[in-house]
Amino acid sequence: MSHTQAAASKAPHPHPPADRPTRLGRFVKRAKWPVLLGWLLLAVAAGGLAADLGDVQRDDAAAYLPSGYESSRVAELAEPDPEHPDAETALVLHTRDDGAPLDDADLAAVRAAAAAVSAADVPGATPPGDVDVAEDGRTTLFPVRIQPAHADDDTVERAVAALRDTVAEAPTGLTARVTGEAALGVDNSGGDVDAALMLTSMAIVAVLLLGTYRSPVLWLVPLLAALVAVVASRAAAYGLAQAGLTVSELSSAIQIVLVFGAGTDYALLYLSRYREELARHHDRHEAVAEALRRTGPAILASAGTVTAGLLCLLVADLAGLRGLGPVAAAGIVISLVAMLTLLPALLACAGRWPLWPRAPRPGRPRGAADHRLWDAVARRVVARPRRAGLLVTLGLCLATLGLTGLTTSADPIDKVPPDADSVIGRETLAEHFPEGLTAPLTVVLPADADAATLAAAEGAAAGARDVAAAAPGEELAGRPTLDVELAVPPYGDRAGDAIRAVRAALADVTDDALVGGTPAVQLDYREAALDDTARIVPLVLLAIAVILAALLRSLVAPVLLLAATVLSFAASLGLSTLVFTEVMGFGGVAADLFVYVFVFLVALGVDYTIFLMERVREERRHHPTPEAVRRGLAATGGVITAAGLVLAGTFAALAQIPDVTVAEVGVGVAIGVLVETLLVRSVQVPAAVVLLGDRVWWPSRRRG
After folding, report:
1. Could you report the per-residue pLDDT of 635-650, keeping only the tens digit for each?
2. Would you say 604 and 669 are in contact if contact means Cβ atoms under 8 Å apart?
3. Are residues 470 and 412 part of one domain?
4. What is the H or E stretch that residue 625 is in?
5. Residues 665, 568: one domain?
6. Distance (Å, rounded) from C-alpha 698 to C-alpha 36?
7. Quick check: is 425 in a domain?
8. Chain centroid, CA 13 distance in Å
9. pTM of the model
10. Please, which residues bridge with residue 132 across strands?
11. Contact, 498 vs 464, CB < 8 A?
12. β-pair type (174-179, 88-96)
């Protein structure tokens, strides 16, 4: 056989007479330059709004607390104006390095440190409180109140840094640490991470695109389209915040990685088909339009599933979770529009040269149809579907055993890196001072409560189970308060029972008593998160099932795909638990982690199966189901794997954020995407489709 004949035999075979290009394809062909100019103008206009997103982000308590709960109402009374938050407290601890009791010289050094703090220029700080010595004599603390000027300033960050610098030079043998709510918040935030997150995501996408296409130019095209989509998405988030929606730092960070990851996935799917069409068409405009026609439905369905899943978050009680839905959904929609208009317009304007040195042409496919690796995988799966599917299913079931080590935690220190100074200080504080002292409850009583009611409320609170003491506190918004000290660790199950007991006891005294404070906030947050999960999970599954049924024209396939994705979610969470506890050293996870990981993993993970099944359905027009599965898996295996690596890489970038919950969401979704890409989409689903045969398309009878 001649070289020309060999090349022709490997070239993509022409399709049967192609359908007419879609309206979108015809539009991009005819108006490529106006489309490009329009996106350029949009990027310039959106850039200013995107840069101002940080000015409208909310990270006060109300941005995260569930509405209607007692602790939320107390927080609102404490901070009636979110733009002018209440003061935060930092606690300065001193201990001996050898663990021995502090002697007179040590106590004198501690008092000198307090005087140094009072004399130092600590932003927003009031003079330190009295030095308190633990009963065992081994630790001291003194509080420092820090009052920020407004919600968006960095007073607390600068004050905590100044405190640490001031007390760092402790006498030999003494160690000073700064903890308390102010220090924990600083160690949890890490400052403005959006720029670093964007650069990390861009670097990950660039490296993976270079590895996928091995072209010095082509990787820039989807990266440019994704970057424009990110800028436009952040401008949309700014508009949503101005309209009254809660946009938090968490929403902003997730939107960045989501748009980069999902947008690049759509670009990879389109580019893969575009390369195939370039090997069939002399005119690149025809290739652009035909690639749009072939990939548009799958990309649209993919974006639809993610958007539908994200909009289900609107039913959440947690304000931060509820606000994330529209912010992230806007990013997905903008990514979709960018990858179906801007990316094709860039390719139509540029011609074939960005694909150098592997630009396909009719008769010279140059790898456009080279699927040897995935063809081999597909042949093995189709040849032995029962064995392949069973092995993967058993492996996923074993991975779910990791869930036995998963525990939820309401303790704020579990949201901070375990090696942070404030976490070590909090642990020291808990060892040497009464449990309830570290986080007392605040009981707010009615403004018109008389002396008898106040005394009865104090007695009822003090007599509740696991309460160490109750005493009158400072007025809050003109209402009398009680400070209630718990006799148990303030964030465990026993603390939750104690808080409920206090609320029940006070309900017998007055109908308008509110129990707040950090332990009550964490308890209410946990319960709201679990309630949100119970509402959102069925909604997400229903929404995605409807979209899959409409796309695949089947009632069996959606059930199969969702069952596989749910098992993948459980296995991924089990594996993630091992990573959290054994590798990263984290403690219990926040209760809202489940719903975050579930929504992103199920909505994003099912995307890859959509890409596969849409190609299988296309091949089924001309081949029986087993052969259609083989051809579909061989054709999409490489591009879907690359897309999965991109999405996993961008979400893994969240691990650099100090907020442990955000890092856990990123790691959990990254692991889940890899499981979905490499096992579920590549082996389990194809094997199940082969075993079911044409029944998987029921009730549809017509092929395709």
Report:
1. 888 888 888 898 899 8
2. yes
3. no
4. helix 625-652
5. yes
6. 43
7. no
8. 43
9. 0.84
10. 141
11. yes
12. antiparallel
